[in-house]
Specification:
The protein is 16% helix and 10% strand. It is built from 4 helices and 8 strands, in the order H-E-E-E-E-E-E-E-H-E-H-H. It has an 8-stranded mixed beta sheet with strand order 1-2-3-4-5-6-7-8. It is extended and about 80 Å long.
Length: 255
């Protein structure tokens, strides 16, 4: 085979047509997730009128400029590939409202200025990439409701992005941002327990089984040490505290 690197699975037009699904809202989605695709199949141009494309979980390194042919696209999922940069032509997809680029290899230079032309974009996921900065021009995406920036190398979020008028969810976790540099307060480990999982003995390794049996034996010892009902007579009429005895205790000691 010519060229270097993995060739991936070859997607024919027949395979692509069979991968088109009609959703409940009437949109047609081209579902090519987890197909081992390494290059954008040119045969997809025959299906350029679809409204949604799922090319997630493949091995794509590049999105070609022919993406501009898909002018009906509303929803584009490219997460979990190896994409390092986007073509400028991505900005021509004026109907796009959802763009997932999570878990790729995008750098700041890999984000074209034309990305800000997606004026109808409501969801943009750039998490799990290699971004060191975010272009201030992303603040022009006035329709953004959800923005994912988690797990990058960001040290600042531009004010223009923070003040997006319709933003409801912005995930910036696990970035070296100054506001997250403060030492977190210790958390009570007991409060952190959310679930209790029960397993059968046969599912445990010998070490874990021995440890659990030891803990159980310790609990049984504590149960054996717990005092039961007393056999001593119970003086129900005795008043506590006994004020008379307390007043005369010094006299009793002398005697």
């Amino acid at each position: 085979p010519k060229g270097k690197g993995p060739q991936g699975k070859r997607i024919t037009l027949k395979v692509a047509k069979n991968a088109v699904r009609v959703l409940f809202n009437g949109r047609r989605r081209l579902e090519l997730s987890k197909m081992g695709i390494t290059t954008f199949p040119k045969c997809l141009l025959e299906l350029a009128d679809v409204e949604e494309i799922d090319l997630s979980r493949n091995m794509l390194r590049k999105i070609p400029n022919i993406i501009e042919k898909f002018q009906n696209l509303v929803w584009l999922d490219l997460h979990s590939n190896q994409i390092e940069e986007l073509p400028a032509e991505i900005g021509t997809l004026q109907n796009l409202t959802f763009l997932n680029l999570c878990n790729n290899k995008l750098t700041t230079k890999g984000l074209p200025e034309q990305l800000t032309q997606l004026r109808n974009l409501r969801t943009l996921n750039l998490g799990l990439n290699c971004l060191e900065t975010i272009p201030t021009t992303l603040g022009s995406l006035r329709e953004l409701v959800e923005l994912g920036l988690f797990d990058n190398s960001l040290t600042i979020i531009p004010k223009s992005v923070k003040k997006l008028p319709k933003i409801e969810r912005m995930n910036v976790k696990r970035n070296p941002l100054p506001e997250f540099a403060k030492e977190e307060e210790p958390i009570d480990t007991v409060k952190r327990i959310e679930s209790l999982y029960l397993v059968e003995k046969k599912d445990l390794c010998s070490t874990c089984l021995q440890m659990c049996q030891g803990e159980r034996d310790e609990l049984h010892k504590l149960e054996d040490m717990t005092p039961g009902p007393s056999d001593k007579p119970n003086f129900t009429s005795l008043t506590t505290p006994n004020s008379t005895a307390r007043d005369n205790q010094e006299e009793w000691r002398i005697k």
